[in-house]
Design a protein that fits this description.
502 residues; mainly beta; five-stranded mixed sheet; 27 strands
């Protein structure tokens, strides 16, 4: 396996020229960058999976990478596409999802002074360096495809939800297919028909963070919800954390609307599970956040939940977060051990075909917050008020929408899904220390209507918050974890011609 040494030292900073531009200020948009392809081609990642998915889209499509964004030290970042390219309508019985193999993308983000005399203060050049497929060493539950109709050609049966690469690599890959769940653990045979069954192959990656030793990535998902730990070099799952049972649903379905109707009063709302994930700077605690209120907390309450996970013991706590301007939450990132930034937004803008209005980062503090794990609501006004009163304190930190509009981006062109948020390298500009804050969009794999994979960089003065950088060790990571040998590429070419999902 070819490997490349990527230095991941979180404390590094860039010393930039003081004469290239006027002094920047805290909260200023300083750079915008796009990722439109890789060495494999336009809008192609480095998985090598060129075969067609059930909807005819190539399995190596590069998109959606702003669903989750994590800093890995130096100029390296990791991004998680979500469950894959399901914007192509082809089979409503599985919500148009495919056997797109779950993965994370490794990128470099090169920030340099803009000396052109016009535009933003800095240039940003994102480069894709690796694609890592996510898998399990133990058996997973896949759908059979029985009774689900045909693929995009209208003739070929939809088939099993297990990707063809499972057989080729004798590996169990996670995928975005909505029917990839079961009623038991295939290894132990123990019954578990809830969405919390860790042996379900369906995965909708949303949040991602890197461990302090640099060897693992933690990924949160919407289907379970799940929080899994994966080997950063191989993509194989190391651990699945047991989340509070009140987050899961009891009745699973491959059709989202049916699933919502059958679980109206319990657990996460379909496609609105654990959307964001943070890790404390000391690397000991994961902090996830649900996108929307749980069924039992009632949508109208505007209260979603934060879940802390002690990585060593697995112990969890829950706290309430009250939505104020947005319709949901897309990300959470650590400022220090108890303060976090939360990405609250509407669903409007580029990709939705209307005008955006709310894309905001709020600062919260969970120190001394009320644990609401055992809070039970009947949906009454009193219960909703009680949960709201228990919510963590929050203040507006950065109005991302306003900053983008102020820089000439129209409301209709502000991406509807600004979902990935991560601090990056520090910079010193005109003698002042700033922390860089990256915000990324999920373009749903449809750049024609939702724009390219965009990254917006903001400068945050060191004096604006009590920031503590995560210290990530330098480790060798693969230049690409995908396919080896011309024989295997030939097999994939054969499966592509026969329209077998990979």
């Amino acid at each position: 396996m070819l490997k490349k040494l990527i230095l991941t030292t979180a404390i590094s900073s860039i010393i930039l020229s003081t004469s290239a531009h006027a002094s920047i200020i805290s909260g200023q948009l300083i750079a915008i960058g796009s990722l439109t392809g890789s060495s494999a081609g336009a809008y192609a990642d480095l998985s090598g999976l060129t075969g067609a998915l059930e909807n005819g889209v190539a399995g190596n499509s590069l998109g959606g990478i702003g669903s989750g964004l994590a800093y890995a030290g130096g100029n390296t970042f990791i991004a998680t596409p979500d469950r894959g390219p399901n914007a192509v309508a082809f089979n409503a019985a599985i919500d148009d999802t495919t056997s797109y193999i779950s993965r994370f993308q490794t990128m470099t983000m090169d920030l340099s002074v803009n000396t052109s005399g016009s535009g933003l203060a800095y240039n940003l050049t994102p480069t894709l360096t690796a694609t890592t497929l996510l898998s399990s060493s133990t058996a997973l539950n896949y759908g059979t495809g029985a009774g689900l109709g045909t693929m995009i050609d209208g003739v070929t049966p939809i088939g099993s939800g297990a990707p063809a690469l499972n057989t080729i690599n004798t590996t169990n890959y996670f995928t975005g297919r909505s029917d990839n769940f079961g009623s038991a653990n295939p290894i132990t045979g123990i019954a578990d028909s809830t969405s919390a069954n860790p042996s379900n192959a369906r995965l909708d990656p949303e949040g991602v963070r890197v461990s302090n030793d640099g060897l693992s990535v933690f990924v949160s998902d919407e289907y379970g919800p799940y929080v899994n730990q994966f080997n950063r070099a191989t993509g194989e799952r190391i651990r699945s954390f047991a989340l509070p049972a009140n987050l899961a649903i009891a009745n699973q379905s491959p059709v989202g609307a049916t699933e919502i109707a059958n679980n109206a009063a319990n657990g996460r709302v379909t496609n609105k599970g654990m959307e964001g994930l943070a890790i404390t700077p000391d690397g000991t605690t994961l902090v996830g956040i649900m996108q929307a209120p749980l069924g039992q907390d009632v949508k109208a309450s505007g209260n979603t939940r934060i879940v802390t996970i002690d990585i060593n013991s697995g112990a969890t706590h829950e706290y309430a977060y009250h939505l104020t301007t947005g319709s949901g939450v897309s990300e959470i990132v650590a400022i220090n051990s108890h303060e976090f930034l939360v990405d609250e937004r509407d669903g409007n803008g580029l990709g939705a075909g209307n005008n955006a209005a709310v894309k905001s980062l709020f600062k919260i503090d969970i120190a001394g917050a009320t644990d609401v794990t055992n809070f039970s609501t009947t949906g009454s006004a009193a219960d909703k008020t009680a949960l709201t009163n228990a919510a963590v304190p929050k203040t507006i930190f950065l109005d991302v929408y306003a900053k983008l509009v102020a820089n000439g981006i129209t409301s209709a062109n502000v991406p509807s899904k600004l979902e990935g948020v991560a601090f990056g390298q520090d910079i010193t500009d005109n003698g002042v220390l700033f922390h860089t804050l990256y915000v990324a969009n999920d373009n749903d794999f449809v750049p024609a209507s939702s724009g390219t994979n965009q990254f917006y960089v903001f400068a945050v003065a060191d004096t604006a918050l009590t920031y503590q950088a995560q210290q990530i060790s330098a480790v060798p990571v693969p230049a690409a974890v995908w396919l080896f040998g011309t024989g295997l590429m030939g097999l994939l070419g054969f499966t592509r011609k026969r329209k077998v999902a990979v």
